[in-house]
Amino acid sequence: MPPSAPASALSDVTASDSTLRRFLHGLPGVDAVGLEARAASLGTRSIKTTAKAYAIDLAISMVDLTTLEGADTPGKVRALGAKAVHPDPTDRTTPTTAAVCVYPDMVAVAKEAVAGSGVKVASVATAFPAGRAALEVKLADVREAVAAGADEIDMVIDRGAFLAGRYLKVYDEIVAVKEACGTNARLKVIFETGELSTYDNIRRASWLGMLAGADFIKTSTGKVAVNATPPNTLLMLEAVRDFRALTGVQVGVKPAGGIRTSKDAIKFLVLVNETAGADWLDNHWFRFGASSLLNDLLMQRQKLATGRYSGPDYVTVD
Amino acid sequence: MSEKTEQQRLTVFKTYKLYVGGKFPRSESGRVYEVTDSKGNWLANAPQSSRKDARDAVVAARKAFGAWSGATAYNRGQVLYRVAEMLEGRREQFVREVAEAEGLSKSKAAAVVDATIDRWVWYAGWTDKISQVVGGANPVAGPYFNLSSPEPSGVVAVVAPQESSFLGLVSVVAPVIATGNTAVVIASEKAPLPALSLGEVLATSDVPGGVVNVLSGRTAEIAAPLAAHQDVNAIDLAGADEGLAKELEIAAADNLKRVLRPQPVDYFETPGIERLTAFLETKTVWHPTGSLGASGSSY
To answer: Cβ B231–A308 below 8 Å, yes or no?
Structure first.
């Protein structure tokens, strides 16, 4: 998608603010109508029976079970951890979720709650969700979370700087955070697509994030009006596909916020398969940032197993 | 000239639609079936609901339950009375629909519609009285108050009577919602049009969307998933024949639904409160009084 430059060409684009700007603004413009039409048409695929059962289990295994409230207590985080390990206690064949996602001060509690299960602990950091703090503060936030044992860090970019066109500042910040993550923690970069205004900006942000070394690019914080939508996720999937074609480096994608039903989740999985390819159909490369989605997936799973519709009385309230 | 245009005017046919969550969707399946009058003449196409329509209706009914059951009984009475007001305004339409559906003369159909409107008013009056009749303070030997109060069961699936398409329908739906339940109603399979038009009346009354959801189609096809549905709390089998009723009762046993079996009813008779109490749970609380001093309560 970017000009058919050899991979080595990408090493130059971050040399200065102007080269980076030239590269990002040189990315082809997004055909908004075509993008939305494609996302909508892929959403009409009918996924039934065994394919549906596979998709539901896959989706459960991709959930980053999230609680990001001011009112989070250690008890709530422990409950969430228990749910991540055994999403449906009545059916032990249910896969575990990919991770639990909490604020940095809850990482230690979450870590203990999921110990030994393979469920990862993700932590938002860098002055989530606004990202309005000095770089030192953000880095301290990240180091704190990593030291407490976080396996993944979800950072927010400085949207103000991005929208003002100061791409190198955003780039440097991501690089610094990546460094603070060390070698063990994977970095997810949140663009807050709802605040980026245009599809062109989302494409630029995706490339900026990947150039800076993001392991995952993530749509949103879940704290603004517009969160993950099929079109903006499709756009990011195209970006990771093209980035791998160009550099050989695979980057994950995480839509977050506003995905509440199994039907929606399956639509996203179709997008993944048809856009990035089956390589991304794994919780190492694709995640859902969600909380209520898991209950709907579990109810659908029960429906498939028993043949009768389940209800909210048969899943946990959280 | 004006007479001529009058004659040439094409009749505007009504598209009958389901009533789910306060909206008027077509069946998710896209299917319709032909509805005929008692002589076999075509009347309209009605949506033929699928099990997914039933599922959506349950979701809508569950969503509406909190606010409707939490509304004061007095308020619910006012809302139900408002339904009667709206029905009165559409009397002519319902007389026609009932006459066609049940093969009645115009005057007999008018009597049915009048009785139906009166039935709404009758149940509207019961909303704030039922708890005094079936609840209250229980006499106990001890320093306690012991109080019982009726509470709605939850989401109730209603298989509406097959023959009495309007009076029978209202006679089974009104008591369910009067006490604060929400309802998923399967209209008479042969004569669903009065029920679907009732949806339009409910939408223009003050009944919140989702409190009553009306589905038309093959009774057995829609009732089966509702009877097995884990989020339905009770089922009224008024319109199920013997074989179907047995099947549904077995399916309903799985999550211990309340089941009201079909029984012969003359819908013109003034009903008792059986249908009101059929979908109520009784909550009983013990409240310690402490010792009463000369000044009254000790606390």
So the answer is: no
User: Which one-letter amino acid corresponds to residue A129?
Assistant: P
Gap between the Cα atoms of A105 and A97, Å rounded = 21
Which alpha helices (H) appear in B130-268, and where do they start and end?
Answer: 130-134, 167-178, 193-204, 219-228, 242-252
Is any Cβ of chain B less than 8 angstroms from the Cβ of A90?
no
Indicate yes or no: CB of B230 within 8 angstroms of CB of A307: no
Question: Can A218 be counted among the known catalytic residues?
Answer: yes
pLDDT tens by residue, A63-119: 999 999 999 999 999 999 999 999 999 999 999 999 999 999 999 999 999 999 999
**Domains of chain B with CATH codes:** 15-34+43-288 (3.40.605.10)
Check CB contact under 8 Å for B62 and A307: no
Contact A311 B231 (CB under 8 A): yes
A223: left (phi over 0), alpha (psi -120 to 50) or beta: alpha
Spell out which residues of chain A touch residue B254, defining contact as CB-CB under 8 Å.
Answer: 308
Tokens read off for A296: 């709907």
Instruction: Give the pairing of strands B144-152 and B136-137.
Output: antiparallel
ipTM: 0.82
Q: Which of A258, A244, A296, A264 is nearest to A42 (CA)?
A: A264
Q: Is A223 a catalytic residue?
A: no
Active-site residue (options: A64, A88, A141, A154):
A154
Contacts of B229 in chain A (CB under 8 A): 308-309, 311
Q: CB of A220 within 8 A of CB of A44?
A: no
Helix (H, G, I), strand (E, B) or coil at B283: strand
Please give the Cα distance from A271 to A265 (Å, whole number).
10
Look at residue B25 and give its three-state secondary structure.
coil
Q: In sequence order, which residues have a C-beta less than 8 Å from that of residue B86 and are 6 or more positions away? A: B201, B204, B205
CA atoms of B91 and B82, how far apart (whole Å)? 14
Q: Which CATH class is domain A18-307?
A: alpha beta
Residue of B58, B62, B231, B256 to mutate, testing the A interface (most A Cβ within 10 Å of its Cβ) = B231
Q: What is the DSSP letter of B144?
A: E
- Residues A40-64 have a mean pLDDT of 96
From B282, B298, B291, B289, select the one nearest B145 (Cα to Cα): B289
From residue A67, give the alpha-carbon distance in Å to each of A116, A318, B276.
21, 9, 42
Decide: helix, strand or coil at residue B136: strand
Whole-angstrom Cα distance, residue A108 to residue A81?
A: 11
Pairing assessment for the beta strands A186-190 and A216-218 based on DSSP bridges: parallel
Cα B265 to Cα A161, A184, B17, B125, B234: the distances in Å are 74, 73, 29, 21, 20
Query: What H or E segment, with its residue span, contains residue B159?
Result: strand B155-159
**pLDDT above 50 (res A6):** no
- What pLDDT is recorded for position B297? 55
Give the residue carrying structure tokens 């609901």: B49
Measure the CA–CA gap between A55 and A270, rounded to whole angstroms: 9
Contacts of B153 in chain A (CB under 8 A): none
Contact between chains at A312 and B58 (C-beta distance less than 8 A): no
